[in-house]
């Protein structure tokens, strides 16, 4: 896992258009400190997904499209006044059912910052690459492991079985 800021082959940088605009707020501390957004270095971890279909229709010279496998967020809160660690929450996205908003909140003098990510259930085990630390003014949240695998059941996965009887009734 690379956290030094160097890009791996499978990483893609967040663009400035990936940041979600957060409504402006009035802070009790803005008389003393100018509110500002934190600096950040975010990456999207992508990989090829080689399933049976991909093996049949693609080659290593002509690979399938990459899919998102995780995110790496590094937010710099170097001038944080409070000693509390920043927090993050995920919210539903009103624009798309496939994405959600991850919002990072810290104390003065920083404003909230939010990003649009895929709305999937994360595997939050350290074995799969989940990491959320706040050290020396840097919040790191890495989810470089796989998403949790949710079994997909199709409506007609076994069309020759009757659901009421539970026995074979011949092909439909």
Automatic annotation (TrEMBL):
It comes from the Eukaryota. Residues 29-140 form the Splicing factor Cactin C-terminal domain. GO terms for cellular component: cytoplasm; spliceosomal complex. Signal peptide: none annotated. One of its GO terms (biological process) is mRNA cis splicing, via spliceosome. PANTHER family: POLYGLUTAMINE BINDING PROTEIN 1/MARVEL MEMBRANE-ASSOCIATING DOMAIN CONTAINING 3 (PTHR21737), SPLICING FACTOR CACTIN (PTHR21737:SF4). This is Splicing factor Cactin C-terminal domain-containing protein. It comes from Heracleum sosnowskyi.
């Amino acid at each position: 896992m690379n956290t030094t800021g160097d890009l791996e082959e499978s990483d893609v940088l967040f663009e400035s258009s990936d940041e979600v605009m957060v409504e402006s707020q009035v802070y009790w501390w803005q008389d003393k400190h100018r509110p500002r957004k934190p600096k950040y270095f975010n990456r999207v971890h992508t990989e090829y997904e080689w399933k049976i279909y991909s093996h049949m229709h693609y080659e290593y010279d002509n690979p399938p499209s990459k899919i998102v496998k995780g995110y790496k967020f590094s937010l710099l809160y170097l001038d944080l006044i409070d000693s509390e660690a920043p927090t993050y929450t995920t919210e539903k996205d009103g624009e798309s059912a496939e994405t959600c908003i991850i919002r990072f909140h810290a104390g003065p003098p920083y404003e909230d910052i939010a990003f649009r990510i895929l709305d999937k259930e994360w595997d939050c085990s350290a074995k799969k690459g989940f990491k959320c630390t706040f050290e020396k003014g840097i919040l790191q949240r890495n989810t470089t492991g796989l998403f949790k695998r949710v079994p997909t059941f199709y409506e007609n996965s076994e069309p020759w079985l009757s659901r009421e009887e539970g026995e074979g009734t011949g092909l439909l």
